Amino acid sequence: MRNWNRRKSIAVEALPSEHTLRRTLSWWHLIAMGVGAIIGTGIYTLVGIGAGLAGPAVVLSFAIAGAVCACAALCYAEVATAIPASGSAYTYSYAVVGELIAWIVGWSLILEYSLVVSAVAVGWSGYVVGTLSAIGLPLPVALTAGPHAGGLFNLPAVFIVFAVAGVLTMGTRESATLNAALVGVKIVALILFISVALPHFDVAQFKPFMPYGFSPHEIDGKQHGVMAAAAIIFFAFYGFDAISTAAEETKRPDRDLPIGIVGSMVICTAIYVGVAAVAIGAMPFTAYADSPEPLALILRSLGQGKVAVIIGAAAIVALPTVILAFLFGQSRIFFVMARDGLLPKSLAKVSTRTGAPVRMTLGTAAVVSVLAGLAPLDEIAALANAGTLVAFIAVAACMLIMRRRDPDGPRKFSTPLPWLIGPLAIGGCIYLFWSLPGTTKLFFGLWNLLGLALYAWVGRSAAIR
Q1: Residue 92: which of 319, 453, 333, 369 has the closest Cα?
Q2: Is-annotated flag, keyword Transport (predicted)?
C-alpha cells in the first residue's frame, strides 16, 4: 500500500542520466513558449464563442478571466522558483502537500493538457478549411469535422497533432527556437487585424453591453452571461503554467522562470484586450458568434478578403505553437509521474540523442489525436478549464502553505501581497469552476473517480511500482 500522505523530496541532481532532462532553455525561450501557449485558439476562435454567450460584455469576461490568471501566475512564479523541478502543479503538490493530492492534481493536468492540444487542433483545422475554401480549394466535410458537426473524422486536426509531436522529438532547444519564430508571426498577424479593423470601430456595437446578464443562466440549453463566458474564455489566458513544466530544462530557473511566467502574461493581456475590443466594435457580435474563424470572418465582411486570407494563413502557421507548448508540458508531466512511480517507470526515459522524452511525446500525441478528430471545440475547452482551475487552486494553496511554514525564509521571487493574491486566485478559480456547464462538472467528477480508482490500483501493483 502507498503512503498517500508522503511528500516528495526534490533532488533532481541525484537522478540517473536516463531520467534527467537537459538544461538548454533561456528566458526568451520561456517567454516565447508562454506567449505561444496563451495566444492561440482563445483569441482566434473563442472570441466568437464568448461573444455568443455574453454579447459585447465578452470584453469584461476577458478582463475577469485575465485577472484570475494574473493572480495564479504570480503564485506560480514564487512556487516554481522555490521548487525548480519539472512537473508543474503536480510536483509542487507532491512536495508541499502529499502524494494523494499530487495524484489528483496530476490527473487533472493530464486532462487539461490533453484537451487543450485537442481543442487547438480543432481550431487550427477550422482555419485550414476556411482558408482553403476562400481560395477555391474546399475540403469534404466528412474529413474536416467530427460526428457532432456532420462529418466523420477531423483529419487536419489529427495531422497537426502528429506534425508537432514530430518537431518535439527533434529536441527541446530546437523545438523552442522554432516556436519563438512562429510566435513572431502570430503577434504580427494580430497587430495587422487591429490596424485593419480599427477604422471600422463603432461604439454603438457595444449597446446593449450586457444582453445576457452577469451571472450564469441557461438559454436554449447553454449557460449564458458574463461569468459563463469567462469560464470558457479562461481557456484563452492560461498557458503560462506550461512554462513551469520546463523548470529542469532551463539554464537559470531562479531568474528565467519568473521572467517567462510574468512577462508572457503581461504581453498577452495587452494583445487580448486590443483584439477583443476591436472585434466587438467592428461588427455585430451575432454575425460571428458561432464561427470557427471569427477574426477572418470579420475581415471578409469588411471587404478585406485578402487580409482575411493573410490572418487565416498566419493562424495556420502560428496556432501550432499552442499545441507545441502544451504537448511539451503534457509529456513532461507524464514523464515526471512515471519517474515518481505513479505511472510505469519504463516511460520515464529520455532519448540519448535529443535529450527529450520521445516515447512519452508520441504516446501522448496518439491519445489526443483521437479527441481532436471526434470532439467539438467548446465542450473540449470547458472540460480542459476544469482541470486547469484545479491546478491553479493547488499552486496558490501551495504558495500559502509554504508561506505559513516558513514566513521569513528566503524567496527567489516573492508574490506581492501574498495573503491577498493567493486567496483571490483560489476564490476566483472556484467561482469560475462553479460557472462551468453542469455536464462539464459531471464529466470532470467522473474523470477524477476514474483517477482515484487507478491510484488505488497503482498502489497495489508491483509491476508498476
Answers
A1: 333
A2: yes
